[in-house]
Amino acid sequence: MEKDLHFETKLIHSSEKHEDPYRSLVPPLYQTSTFAFENAAQGEARFSGADEGPVYTRLSNPTVEMLEKKLANLEGGEAALAFSSGMGAVSSVLLSLVNQNQHILCSKGVYGCTYGLLQMLKEKFAISHTFSGMNSSMEIESAILPETACIYIETPINPTMELIDLELAAKIGKKHGIPVIVDNTFCSPYLQQPLLLNCDIVIHSATKYISGHGDVIAGIAVGKIDYLNEVAMTVRKDIGSVLSPFDAWLLLRGLKTLAVRMDRHCETAEKLAVKLENHPVISSVSYPFLRSFPQYDLAVKQMKKGGGLITITVKGGKEEAQKVMDALKLVKIAVSLGDAETLIQHPATMTHSVIDEKERIKMGITDNMLRLSVGLEAEEDIWEDLSRALRSI
Ligand SMILES: *Cc1c(COP(=O)(O)O)cnc(C)c1O
């Protein structure tokens, strides 16, 4: 029956069945580290797997499982796993899928800490990586090595907003028997569903749109049961990158409004992107649903709407970019995204400052670039603040 429901309805009702004796409307919060067994035999059966009930919250927890089932359903995957952060999800999935001396093929840009993780994997475990533009079958295939263990993609790429064709990447991954992992944080399952385009694993920083309220750090991975069981019963269990029941409960709460929030984020962002494009001190605006966006056709093909993030470059350099930030009053200077509050950050000195300068410029992250996460305030008020700040340069 769940398969027939619309996305908006699934956000509210999917996987919310529970056996609370009081018929609590909202999922109960099982804020407990361990679960008492009825007797020794039940304990034995839980450990052997003959009885599937919970044992200990680092292995599983009913509130966390409700969240996992809901996200699996929303992304169209067989199963999902929740983690203590987006990086907990990224690192657990990669550590589980990739062995020493293997190789990871990445999109041209990745989240700053993912980049840091890739460096660490290289230094400690001789797991190499390369970045590819992935603009054609040939460009992807020519970057695949005999030891390539997975293809790791962000789209839109943070913060340049360049897109990767997910259907194409999945096709090539299948042809070579290499799983394709997609960090879908920027879109949320409402705007883009990579599993339905044949990709293998979807990762989210649930800290962002899935939470939507800026009060949780969390991560999610969705995909085939086989892959995820492996992640759950090896890396997640033993490294311990698990989500707390309370944070899972907050995410279940935030998720109910994902569709209405995303609609508003996108609607406001699109209006602001058009206005910004016509502003005299701005040299470029990257927003996937702008007609002028170089990959507009691909954006419309694989995304439902343009998203809540806009990247701009101002005329000038770092000094001018920072001047604009300092002149803002309503818009807050902060990293993260997907919150109710509009946030602005300077990738070169903030989220992407760990990347060596030459590599950063190669990724297209320049000193005059600012990334805006459009919040849920009235569009007129955000524009008023932005246009006033832009006048300061
Ligand atoms: C924030 C973010 C992450 C990391 O998530 P955390 O929850 O902060 O650990 C990974 N990928 C992208 C695209 C992000 O925006």
Automatic annotation (TrEMBL):
<dbReference type="InterPro" id="IPR015421">
    <property type="entry name" value="PyrdxlP-dep_Trfase_major"/>
</dbReference>
<dbReference type="GO" id="GO:0047982">
    <property type="term" value="F:homocysteine desulfhydrase activity"/>
</dbReference>
<dbReference type="InterPro" id="IPR000277">
    <property type="entry name" value="Cys/Met-Metab_PyrdxlP-dep_enz"/>
</dbReference>
<dbReference type="GO" id="GO:0005737">
    <property type="term" value="C:cytoplasm"/>
</dbReference>
<dbReference type="GO" id="GO:0030170">
    <property type="term" value="F:pyridoxal phosphate binding"/>
</dbReference>
<comment type="similarity">
    <text>Belongs to the trans-sulfuration enzymes family. L-methionine gamma-lyase subfamily.</text>
</comment>
<dbReference type="InterPro" id="IPR006237">
    <property type="entry name" value="L-Met_gamma_lys"/>
</dbReference>
<dbReference type="InterPro" id="IPR015422">
    <property type="entry name" value="PyrdxlP-dep_Trfase_small"/>
</dbReference>
<dbReference type="InterPro" id="IPR015424">
    <property type="entry name" value="PyrdxlP-dep_Trfase"/>
</dbReference>
<dbReference type="GO" id="GO:0018826">
    <property type="term" value="F:methionine gamma-lyase activity"/>
</dbReference>
<keyword id="KW-0663">Pyridoxal phosphate</keyword>
<dbReference type="GO" id="GO:0019346">
    <property type="term" value="P:transsulfuration"/>
</dbReference>
<dbReference type="InterPro" id="IPR054542">
    <property type="entry name" value="Cys_met_metab_PP"/>
</dbReference>
<keyword id="KW-0456">Lyase</keyword>
<protein>
    <recommendedName>
        <fullName>L-methionine gamma-lyase</fullName>
        <ecNumber>4.4.1.11</ecNumber>
        <ecNumber>4.4.1.2</ecNumber>
    </recommendedName>
</protein>
<dbReference type="GO" id="GO:0009086">
    <property type="term" value="P:methionine biosynthetic process"/>
</dbReference>
<dbReference type="Pfam" id="PF01053">
    <property type="entry name" value="Cys_Met_Meta_PP"/>
</dbReference>
<feature type="modified residue" description="N6-(pyridoxal phosphate)lysine">
    <location>
        <position position="208"/>
    </location>
</feature>
